[in-house]
Specification:
The protein has 432 residues and is an alpha/beta fold. It is built from 19 helices and eight strands. The protein folds into three domains: 110 residues, no CATH class; 102 residues, Rossmann fold, CATH 3.40.50.10700; 183 residues, no CATH class.
């Protein structure tokens, strides 16, 4: 992309006798071009695993990313006039970048043996967790790991005087890492053989840690309280918390100012469709289980809950025509910026649920209350990775993502989630 920027610049403006001077003089502008465009790529979802292996998806997202990137560049130049980016140079730089990036990705898919880039695993454990790992490998697009051998604990040989058998098995299979996937490991693991592998430079990882690292979620089915208690995470650093609150207040204030015209048009559309109220208030459960009223633009019929509370489903008939668009674009969530300013919500966090649903969920999913450790959010890790919860199974999957977020929360992770939320808005992922 740096090369394409200079190609556009030199083709339009530069004098070749001052080539070196021009390179240095315009390096900050070139780097600004690259940073803005790659930020756009990340926001649009160009680096998702599902987008890497499909050249059609790559092409569509790359086009959308360059459109967004051009808008961001215009905003950058407006805010920082000293960064001069000539539009006639971009007329060459952007199409050249598009073609070359597309070519590089196509060559990668054609030439590279992607399995050779995957970490090779030897799994030691019980049949259930081993089967789950193999299913995970099949489910993840371009999986970064590959199970090359699986050894169940009842197949472990009795070699009291030979601690190197597991190391030999790893080397024979070409394994680079061992995943211990035992339902109950007390007194069942060949500790000396594992230690021999560890000292030989082969990584040894427990199933929960490996699953969390590769999927961005916590496996609820095999989650033990001890894992939550003794593993690193669940930190709430004061500096991160202060930065998060300042960021929330500033962004919510700016968000209300910028989106005021959108809110006005949406309010008018809601009123014209059925004459009902514009805003919708509903009790939700917040941080530490404290209830609060959430604000949303009304997207359902006025009598949507005449038969009592129920989950929002795909193609829900209670959603109005205007409401369907508001939900798809997440415009109905904008009034929650008021909740953020009031300190009841954050920009990023687990989605707040209704008290009536929380009571039902906690009975079925005991760890659900852990997500109340943080303020609920407008967007979050679970919302990026899974659609609206329409039933208890959806809620279980979203809880796995929420637990990952609560465990690994940091201000930097919040920034990544906010950036990638744009991808959800553009492509309408999970809207109901």
């Amino acid at each position: 992309m740096v090369a394409c920027f200079y190609l556009g610049y030199f083709a339009r403006y530069a004098e070749l006798e001052f080539f070196v001077d021009a390179l240095w003089a315009h390096l900050p502008v070139a780097l600004n071009y690259v940073v803005v465009m790659m930020t756009s790529f990340l926001a649009i979802g160009l680096y998702e695993r599902s987008a890497v292996g499909d050249i059609r998806v790559v092409t569509i997202r790359l086009l959308a990313a360059f459109v967004l990137g051009f808008a961001l560049l215009a905003m950058t130049v407006y805010l920082f006039p000293g960064l001069k980016i000539w539009r006639s140079g971009l007329v060459i730089a952007i199409p050249a970048s598009f073609v070359l990036i597309l070519l590089v990705r196509r060559l990668f898919l054609w030439l590279v043996d992607r399995e050779a880039l995957s970490r090779k695993l030897l799994v030691l454990g019980d049949p259930g967790p081993i089967a789950d790992l193999r299913a995970c490998e099949r489910r993840i697009g371009l999986a970064p790991f590959r199970v090359v051998r699986a050894i169940t604990l009842d197949q472990v040989p009795d070699r009291a005087n030979d601690d190197s058998w597991l190391l030999e098995a790893c080397r024979a299979a070409g394994a680079e890492e061992i995943v211990v996937a035992a339902s109950d490991r007390r007194g069942r693991l060949p500790m000396q053989a594992l230690l021999c592998c560890r000292l030989a430079g082969i990584s040894v990882c427990e199933f929960q840690d490996f699953y969390e690292r590769e999927t961005g979620r916590v496996d609820l089915e095999r989650l033990q309280p001890g894992w939550l208690v003794f593993r690193e995470g669940f930190r709430q650093g004061k500096l991160d918390a202060i930065a998060k609150r300042i960021f929330d207040v500033v962004l919510a204030s700016l968000g209300l100012i910028v989106t005021l015209p959108i809110l006005a048009v949406a309010a008018l559309a809601i009123k014209l469709e059925d004459g009902g109220p514009i805003l919708f208030r509903q009790e939700r459960v917040g941080r530490n289980g404290t209830p609060f009223d959430i604000f949303k633009l009304r997207s359902m019929r006025v009598d949507a809950e005449r038969d009592g509370p129920r989950w929002a489903a795909a193609g829900d008939r209670r959603v109005t025509r205007v409401g369907r668009f508001l939900r798809r674009t997440r415009i109905d969530e904008l009034p929650q910026l008021l909740n953020v300013l009031r300190g009841e919500m954050s920009f990023v966090g687990p989605r707040p649920e209704r008290p009536v649903f929380v009571q039902q969920i906690v009975e079925a999913l005991p760890y659900f209350a852990v997500r109340h450790q943080l303020r609920p959010g407008l967007t979050g890790w679970a919302q990026l990775n899974h659609p609206y919860a329409a039933n208890l199974e959806d809620t279980r999957v979203k809880l796995e993502y929420d637990l990952y977020y609560v465990k690994n929360w940091s201000f930097f992770l919040d920034l990544v989630i906010i950036l990638q939320t744009f991808r959800v808005i553009v492509w309408g992922n999970g809207a109901r």
